[in-house]
Amino acid sequence: MATYNKRGYKPKTKVEKEHNIEEGSTTAEVFNTLDETASKTEDFVAKNQKYIFVIIGLVAVIVLGSLGYKEFIAQPKQATAMNDMFQAQKYFDEAVSAATAQKDSLYNLALNGGEGKFGMLDIIEEYSGTPSANLASYYAGTAYLRLKDYKSAVEHLSNFKSEDEILAPLAKGNIGDAFVQLNQPEDALGYYEEAAEMRNNEYTTPMYLFKAGTIALELGQPDKALSYFKRIKEDYSNSTEAGKVEVFIGKAQVLANK
């Protein structure tokens, strides 16, 4: 059981006196150690305060600089990029719904600009690092795909980064389409598979599962193709692809059993 001595208590025995002396000595040593440590710290600070202040200053500059860049440079730059991109996006949207004879000219305007306005290529160059430049890479890649410039399509679509449920798989799938046209079916299959697995939704997932299945059949991989076709039938029965997948399931089964 722990014990304590009342205030004013005087040691009566030699043992108690020696114990008190030891306690006092230990306490003194602790305080002496603390004093020495504090003294050394003060000496270090005194000798190196110039460098310490420089380090603190650099940290402050980095933090404030980051905040300042975001507030006064990045955000205004993005706003300007969005404004300059408006006309190019308008050309692209018009190209999508235009008659066949007008599509190429509108896609070229979307890429290179018109009426004194920036095109998608200008946005990529002038506003590098902004979300607008990133999105312009998607539009530029897709425009090149429609214009049958497949290598440029792959280049720009590969530069596009997104977590969007629709745009992310569309970009990968468009790269797959470009590789089909470049007669590189193995590459196309890889991108179709990636597009199908990126975001699970009722639009892009069955579309790219179907494309992956047809390319797998072409490459002599009927088992893989069959798994993709069956997944469409079972998990995406309301999709457009589900309405035509039965024929491909039958074909894949025949080839798989050979």
UniProtKB/TrEMBL annotation:
Top-level lineage group: Bacteria
UniProt-annotated stretches for the region Disordered: 1-20
Keyword check for Membrane: yes
Gene3D superfamilies given in the database record: Tetratricopeptide repeat domain (1.25.40.10)
Membrane-spanning ranges: 51-69
Pfam families membership: TPR_16, TPR_6
Keywords: Membrane, Transmembrane, Transmembrane helix
Name of the protein described by the UniProt record: Tetratricopeptide repeat protein
InterPro entries linked to this entry: TPR-like_helical_dom_sf, TPR_rpt
